[in-house]
Amino acid sequence: xxxxxxxxxxxxxxxxxxxxxxxxxxxxxxxxxxxxxxxxxxxxxxxxxxxxxxxxxxxxxxxxxxxxxxxxxxxxxxxxxxxxxxxxxxxxxxxxxxxxxxxxxxxxxxxxxxxxxxxxxxxxxxxxxxxxxx
Length: 134
Known about the structure:
By secondary structure, the chain is mostly helical.
């Protein structure tokens, strides 16, 4: 298997004029600095099973942490992000507000920014820093 992997890597590197590991540049990490970007990332990640046709809604995907954040399942292992907790108002719980945030679809510009891994707050998001719709 090692020989096969080495040959595959060499052929791929020659064909695409690449160097280094086969996985170089594939994964990136960026600091999430704004509340709007945190919520956009949550929506992007938790709606992936919906986009992949694995579930009809985020809450119906069994392996998602969405259940704990939308208030339907109690979770002792999931530590809520301060942005999630800031969704709480005097009349509404954070879970109710979180469900409302998920009712707003991610627009194409935000999806493109997240997929490109630009690591900056989306400029055209429909949720303000406090989680309230604009």
